Queue: 4 jobs
Job 1
Amino acid sequence: MWDAEVDVAIAGAGGCGLVAALTVAERGLQVAVFEKTDFILGNTAASAGMIPAAGTRFQREIGIQETPEEMADDILKKNHQESNPELTLALSKVSGPLVEWMNDNLDMQFSLVTEFKYPGQRNLRMHAPPTRSGLELMKKLKKAANDKDNIYLMLKSQVEKLILGDKGEVIGIDVQTTDGIQRIKAKKVILATNGFGGNTSMVKKFIPEISDALYFGYEANTGEGIEMALEIGAGISNMTAYQGHAAVNEATGLLVTWGTIMSGGFMVNQDGERFGNEAQGYSEFALEVVKQEVQSGYIIIDQYIYQNLLTIEDFKKLDEIDAFKSSDSIEDLAVKLGINVKGLKQTCNAFQENEQGSPDQFGRTDFPKQLKGKLFGIKVSPALFHTQGGLNVNEHAQVVNVQGNVIENLYAGGGTAVGVSGRHAYGYMSGNGLLAALGFGRIAGDHAVHMIQKKGME
């Protein structure tokens, strides 16, 4: 007894779900997307909208020739070889075609981010829309989905259960709607409900080290996709992995881009002292901020860095509401920030003596410039953005069980699937979250269509 039948059913209408839906729909198949909330948002909307990709024409236009293998190598180095090499390479291979498809077919108007390189990336490879905003990505994805007659987008509809056939294959889903439970028959099911960052008990169970920090992700990310698949025997990996961030301005609810650091800034604590190598990455540095007495830090930059980052939407918003304190004097800036004056002055003087390529006492070697002229500072807090562990999947985004065998007709992507950030916060490289969401969405959609068409020809 089925209430409806589609070719592909997708749980979750974030970036992963919509990319998968568009991929399926452009091949002429019918797809239904079920979103449990009232809105089309998700972690993609909360992101900076920057997608890492290798071998794109945007890179070639400025003389960068990069292979997917080089990109995968960077990711594996950052996570200490802790992610699945085949998955890492598969996402790296799809990244370039994905970005160009989104630009050309979905009017994303991407450009290469050239202001700075993120930690661990050998080349400029971050691609972003004009506003440098994930919300812009989601608006374009939603518009494209609404324009497709063969995409059915259902809000307030939570997928609650996977329905199995006689051989253990997935044949449909139970969906809780405003009209009650609906049973949807589907040839393929894609789980795109993100991770479990919004599920306090799961966070405390798997990643207690960050459980007391602010959760800065989408509140609806509560792990149902993972739990549903576990019920039918799916395997999980790297549940201790996550993306943290060391620089959320709680007063405004806005993210302070790590470009502040990579362009030459530094962070201090309440005593005006630095407490680690900021350039190692914003994810792992979140733990360093957690260890501080008041669990907060203060980023210090100069006028040049400040002006150079105004192209980033969140940074522009911070500028518009005067969130940064500023002064021509480091002592006066310390007073305005409410931190130790003597400590900040000594720290700033010592920091200015560092040279590019030479390690300081924390091992930092990235010092692209000295701070000059007017100085700016802002208070930041550590946060959990999203989890990076999840369901075991193969290079086609097919979910595999605890024995390593494919669960027929079931796919997963984004935070629902295991990502490419290894097992710890240090493994997260900027863009890994969007890469896994949009990349796995594209891979899952492609493979689902291929398998449906192949079966139709048999």
Job 2
Amino acid sequence: MSQFIKQPKLQNRSAEIGQAFAKCLAEIKSGPWKFIQLRGETFAADNLTDDDIDLLGTRESVHLLLKTCFEWVRAGRCHMRIRSRKENKVEFTLFSLDGRQSALFDLWTNLPQLDRGRSSLTYEACQTAVIDSNESIQRLPFEIEACVYIQHLICKKKNLNTPSVQHRLTNYFQRFLESRNVELRDVVSSILLNETLSPTAEQISLEHLNKTLNTSQLKRNQQQTSTIFAKLQAAGIGTPRHSSMVTMIGCDGAGKTTLAHELKKHDTKIGRIKTGKHFYRKALSYKLAVIFIRPLLFQDRERFDEILAPFVYLRACLGLRLMLLFSSKNSSTLIDRSLIDFLYVDRKTDAPRFSKFHWLRNLFGVRIPNVHCIASHETVMQRKQEVTRQGHCRYDEDMFQEFALRCPTDAVLFNNDGELDASRIAIQRILSKSGVCTVLNDTAEHVAQHKNRNAA
């Protein structure tokens, strides 16, 4: 009988989560930022597809959007993931609380796809041409939008036979039938008929953009030769495209360790959980320092680690490198605490901060993907009463600045205020998109099998 009572509650909860996600999307369309949607249907919760939503804006708008969504995560409204490998683009995904629904946005500060990548489109160049300048999410006249899309197809060497490309070109052609721009109509028609992009189509679309946009704000791309230092830095600390390792970070009491062990318990792809502090605490040099130096300082283990922060960080970097070298590619590893945590001092005070040796992060270490577990102070106090409200808030804000706004990065901001099983399922759905976890099967048959296995 209890099963029949719980079912409506689960349905109501799912509906509430879907409504909260739809409200977040609606607020993106009415926020204090300015973006131009470059193509596609105007996004909403009921018409989302697997395609990304390309938005062009200023760096200030990008940061404002990310900071606002960070506050939504803290308030328990959603989760988010931020990936960035280049300074001009941020890949931002908004997730519903249960991880079922998601919206993927490509946030461009300049779009290097004009004239075969020799020029970049900027928000300032399009600002005078937008149709709805007072809106948060603006659109360009469809003639300009079509020309930008043609330049995109040329620069990216897209396959013109795919359904999505054919569908989008057909929509542009139908709209051109109602307009007086015969030249652009014929260009789109020839692309559809011949399934090729001719030099004439490239020239006409580029000329139209030069006539209608503020060409002084178009950014000319220059071929830059990377220095040896830049190449070494990118190879040394750059975020890998595919990684079988994920770090779990969060304020003391945010539940990251419990969540990690729950994930390993239910996901066979996760092979092990590594305690981050073991990267240095098991080293012979550290053990000798604890024996001979710590007694002279009259400090506990935590405070001693903070005093030795730069040495601890460098030894942990070496430990992570060795682990990456000998790790298995067939299973995933969760690491409890990030390397950056070892450069964060005074954690249990009202004013935690990064060590003055924080600059070491730009020279040493590896930027593997991380999950930032965020919980309310009330939740934290149930586990770690020594964590102050100010210190807890400061930690989350500092780690958001450190991971979400840097480049390169791959960071998930996860609200961990929910029940343990619900949080585990949600983060499993999110991490399965990057191959860290197995793809979660939500069918009734799979759920029944899972319950029977746990009962056995």
Job 3
Amino acid sequence: MREKRTYIKNAYVISMNDEKQVFENGGVLIVDDKIKAVGKIDEKEIFPDTQIIDAKGKIVMPGLINTHVHTSQQLERGMGDDVDLLTWLTDRTFPYESSMTPEDSYISTLLCLVEQIKSGVTTIAEPGGQFVPSMCKAVAQSGIRGILAKSSMDYGDNLPPIWRRSTQEELDVQEQDLKDWNNTYDGRVKVWFGLRTLFNDSDKLVLGTKELADKYNVGIHMHVAEAKAEVEYVKETKGVPTVTHLRNLGVLDKNLLAVHTVWLTDEEVDMFKEYDVKVSHNPASAMRVLGFAKVPKMLKKGICVSIGTDGASANNRMTMIDEMYVTALIHKGWRLDPTVVKAEEIITMATTNGAKALLWEDEIGALKPGMKADLIIINPDSAQMLPLHDPIANIVTAMHESNVESVMCNGEWIMKNRVLVTLDEQAILEEAKIHAEAIRQRAGIVLPDRFPVIKC
């Protein structure tokens, strides 16, 4: 079978290669699912049947990598506004998620992926719904990449009855999910192990998870030092803060993706560096109720910090574009230093660092020969993004979802000219409305009216 070639020409190509080179009027040549060449393309490589896309005036860059997104919470959007963390978790999120069916999880994931693709994301990492097969099915259908994990919990009085399982049951179901789904669909779908939080994970579960992750050479996706209450709880029950306790258990390692990491001591930041722990920074959700992570300090020390959106019930805006913008603001604000966390660092966090955080840097995160063809085409020709005095800064501080014109993953277009190729967006929207209301009714969640409502 003859190879398929795609040639994108005349673009402003942000390669994110080892030298972070940018090519003006550059090209990207794709052969099947991989990048053949970037920059100045040899005309001899352009065959008569090559698909040619003239991207003059447009920007081509690697697809964005969302290292923490709760696909199972997409149908829960709007349930976490203006409440404290424990109210959100115990009275809203746990009842809602525990009332979901596998079909609900599938529809919720599809809706989440519509938003991800339309905002330029080509890879996601899901920290833990309850139905990994449903999430895998949706990711496979969408055409993007996904690392999926079950939200494993074996401890805590706040757990709904349906979630109260033994440590071994939680380990067994995750191991089976991995055997069934890891490295499927041309390698786009992967399965990791998930740990929710030390509020709900026993030391036995944490240690068993670490053992299995190492056995299968995959990662662990975990909320770590997320909230002040969590760290205080761990101090009371274990005698040391969260990260120190994980270090003592032997869990800090290069295959741990630690999410939020807001309440770290300076010594624990050093532990992250020492053990090569990866970080997912979720600025918008953290700013609501958690606090401010020491991201400038982490970056300065060379810790791999990536970016995630968190879930729709904690953030509402599930786009990496918004997260990059918020990342550009909050650290300057709370430190009163406009020079920290620069635009080029933020783009790195959203691409190459994201790939490293997901242990996938050998295939994704940059546009260079031999890498998988995961890229986006940005059309800056809009009032909100022009002029392009500083294109790199504009991507972080001025770009909107509507500027993302086309998305390619694994050499296949999954969105072209703002139209999804792999998913029926309108059908998903209609299904999502039905499933979201049905789950809320089953969960018995009633939100108070913010203004008087008159039924006419």
Job 4
Amino acid sequence: MQVPDSLLKKYNVPVPRYTSYPPANHFSDSFNGSNYKDLLVESNMLQPELISIYIHIPFCNKMCFYCGCNMCLTGDKKLIKPYIQALKKEIAMVAAHLDKNRKVAQIHYGGGTPNSIASEFIKEINEYLFNTFEFIDKPEIAIETHPAHLNEKYIRELKNAGFNRFSMGIQDFNEEVLKAVNRDPAQMPVQELMQLMRSDNPEVAVNLDFIYGLPLQTPASFVETMEKAVQLQPDRLVTFSYAHVPWIKKQQKILEKRGLPSTETKMEMFLAAYHFLIHAGYHAIGLDHYVRENDELFIALKNKQLHRNFQGYATRRTTGQVYAFGMSAISQTESGYAQNEKDTQAYIDKIESGQYATVKGMHVSQEQILVREIITHLMCNKEIDWQEMSEKLNISEENLNKIAQPDKAAFEMFEQDKLINPKANGFEVTELGSLFIRNIAAALDPAYKEQQQKYSKSV
């Protein structure tokens, strides 16, 4: 697959990532804890019935310069214990409004760096969740980890705490790249870490996560990193595009001084890694995930049943409304969104005073729910069949098109540029078009307007 420079220039514009719809910049500051409570009660009557839980651990030992997460440095660690207590209290506050018959299908820990704190804190939270909720058979219990803070003892304790999926943020195997972005390398060989994770339990899965578009990276060097990754045989492999938003994350300006790759070079990195991973037997899921043929995500993709939420890609088996806990965490129920306070101490203070930590969010209209279904299906399954969508959503094709308001001129351009192929009742995204799928989604988003200071560029 070749990508003409003309298409890169044409489509490399700021567009939403569409991990949610509407995107988070549409959230209202007037949305408060009382509104969130309403969402919780409403969610019991909506589908999916299953529960997904997100736990945000904001702490990090040091700042990686590329970081776009909501985090805080551990310092003297005095906030960790009160933060864990606040998390448990928030879980209790939310659980009080959820139907006890609903089951948890998924837990995901993100950050920050969840494994930058003592493992007993993580185990304490999991035990609290296990004692508070009912679970489906074989739920996914996942944690994002930094390999610099992993050893045999810590991994054993995480497994004892119930985790069955580990994501390791490798970012790059080139230690010069890691040094340039202020990230510590793994303290043990990654292969040994993976063996420890998988030992004694064949059902434990391991993901390796990487970032392309960082200083000192080249297409050749990134393929070398992919070669090392494939030799380790991860269950899933993720190549995230570095999102440069220095107007939001000031420390990213440091990377400008250290030399960021051009848009063209960054695309070469993506394509070189893409071709290598496909040739190595992995299958592409969405924009950045690669899985093996027997992975449930690939099976769901073949059946046009792939789904996603703030947790990432999921099958219908593990898809739930998302209840998020911790500083900056965003809950994602069927009827709306609620985001917590972004300051760690302010989050603790609000929860300890018996208040929800909600500082912004929104109720989603019926029209926005329909657009969300269309865009989510497109982003996951790379096709739209208007007849199938109208039947699934129980609305006429004519009314569905009135709500989504497809940009006809844009779709004519997508077809001319070979980003889509027309079908009898819609279109499918081509291999080339998958690189610009965010642009295609934006043409189905009636609320979209280019906002240079709101979204990262599509490439």
